Every structure is written in structure tokens, then in C-alpha cells.
Amino acid sequence: MKEENTVIQSVDRALLLLEYIASHPEEKLTLTELAEVMNLDKSSVFRILTTLFRHGLVRQEEGKKVYKPGFGIFGLASSLYEQMKLPVVVSPFLREIARKTCENAHLVVRSGTQAVFIDREQGTNRILTNTNIGDTEELYCTAVGKCLICDYSREGLEILFSERTLERFTERTIIDMDALRGELQDVKAKGYAVDMEEYEPRVVCLACPIKNYQGKIIAAIGISGPKDRGLPDLDRNIGIVLEAAAAINSLLIGGTDAKG
Fold first, then answer.
1. What is the pLDDT of residues 124-151, one digit of tens each?
2. Would you give the distance in Å from CA 35 to the centre of its chain?
3. φ and ψ at 16, to 5 degrees?
4. Helical H runs in 23-139?
5. Which top CATH class is 77-253?
6. Sign of the C-alpha dihedral, residues 47, 51, 57, 62?
7. Is the CATH code 1.10.10.10 the one for domain 3-70?
8. Where are the domains of the chain?
9. Cβ-count burial 208-234 (b if 16+ within 10 Å, e if not)
10. Which residues fall within 8 angstroms of residue 23, CB to CB, at 6 or more apart?
């Protein structure tokens, strides 16, 4: 498929305009000047600016008809910055989790309907399956995935999964939206999630959500191992991961009592 057939022209123009404004933060850019830069009529550019303004991506100085980058850009950038610094904060805790549980420990973030592994620490125990940085898993049937979406409302879940069908991977996979919502409410209440062979046969996983200073879930940490080893050690390992998550959350919020 050729790129020109997949690009939405109005979105492309809006992003080009935003890029131009963001690259000239000190200039007092007027509607006329921006229309000339974009080679578009002023009414078209005004509609684009109005849309960007609505989302906080551009702003106008009070009493002046000039445009500057909006503070909404900072919000988008800070989200990426959080993900970039997360491994630095979490890595020592992953090592400790792997040492105490002897299982693989990992850090994931959400990308669309997938959980993406962005850091991991290998345990000493033999494993059935292995995950690498950059690998993805499903949100709705994995422990880390359920942690990432446990705050979602029923409506939010329907929107998130509106363009895909919940696939059954094992006989334990939850594919009913009401059942999934109930499971997620339980995860939120307990502070951890468990995947009992929902994604892979004979594999048990557990995870805890990681939150930023605003209390928003931005990641999850977890471990995985074979069922015959994971179930007997489940309660002990839940405690280990919960303790690590609490310490990480304290650090990200700005607490001083957490220990690495």
C-alpha cells in the first residue's frame, strides 16, 4: 500500500502546522503568516488552529492574535519521558524480584491494545517461555496487561477493544467484556493481577500496577513461571512483587522512605 493512500490529509496538515509553530516558539506567528507557510487559505488554517487550541497544543497570548506552542505539548512529552526514565527507576527492583523469586521479572507499558516489555531481569529458574525487550502480549488475558487497564470503565474497555475481537488462547481466557470488567475491578481492589494459564498453557504470571505522581497507572511489573512452580510459591511471590511495586510507586510519587 502506498503511503499517499494511507495519510489523512487534514491530520497531516495539522501536524505540519503544529511542528512549525513548535519549532518557532519565540516568534509571534499570525494567522496570515501561518497561512503563507502552509500555502493554504486563512479559513482552512484557522480551523486547524482552532482544533489544536481545543486540545491545548497551541495557545494565544491574551489580547494578541498570535499563536504559540500550547502547554498540552508538555503533557504529551512528559508521558514519553516517564516511559524513558522508568527502567532507570525500576531496574534495581526487578533485579531484587528476580533474586528473591528466582523467576523472570519484567517491566511493561501499554501501547494500544498491547503490553510492551521495556525492561526485564532473568531469574535463575528454568523457564518454559522467554520474553525479550520489545516483545508484546495481550492486555486482557495477561497479569501485566490486566494491571495496565484495571482503571478502565466498561465504556473505556469497549472503546479500547472496539476494533478487535478478544481471542481465546486457552480454555481459561476471558473473552466476555462483563467478565473482564469484573476481573479488572478485582485487580484494582487487590492491587495485583494473576494470570492462571489464560495466555499460555502451564504458565502462571502475577503483576502489580505502577503509578505516577498523579496516581495514573503508567506501567506494570511482574513475574512469570511454570504452573507447577508458580502455584506453590504464589502467595510468597505476590508479597515480593507487591512490596517492590509499593517502593517504586513511592519513588515516582516523590516519597523518601522507599529502598532500592
1. 877 666 678 889 999 999 999 999 999 9
2. 36
3. -60, -40
4. 31-38, 42-54, 72-101
5. alpha beta
6. positive
7. yes
8. 3-70, 77-253
9. bbbbbeeeebbbbbbbbbbeebbeebe
10. none
